[in-house]
Design brief:
Structural class: mainly alpha
Strand content: under 5%
Radius of gyration: 15 Å
Distance between the termini: 33 Å
Helix content: over 70%
């Protein structure tokens, strides 16, 4: 639950920063809109692979879900840090 809560807070920060960048309120790199789409596809396939791997090893449903959330959590954490850096 903690992992999910942290990821949800970071995701809201990332969404807000990206929207502010698209509206021109803050500067962002030119490739940010493309990156936003591309990383979701990569995270989804990593999450599916992690969940399938955990299931094949006989882990519980809770551990499978946790493994599936890990790729999303890594990306939201990295994006939150990257987008909030003072330039």
């Amino acid at each position: 639950m903690t992992q999910f809560s942290r990821m949800a807070i970071e995701a809201q920060m990332v969404i807000g920063m990206r929207m502010a960048g698209m509206m021109g309120l803050i500067t962002q790199s030119p490739g940010e809109p493309f990156r936003m789409i591309a990383e979701k596809q990569a995270a989804a396939s990593e999450a599916m692979f992690a969940m399938a791997s955990a299931g094949m090893r006989g882990h519980s449903t809770e551990r499978m879900l946790s493994a599936g959330m890990r790729p999303y959590g890594r990306r939201t954490r990295a994006n939150s840090r990257r987008l909030t850096l003072v330039k």
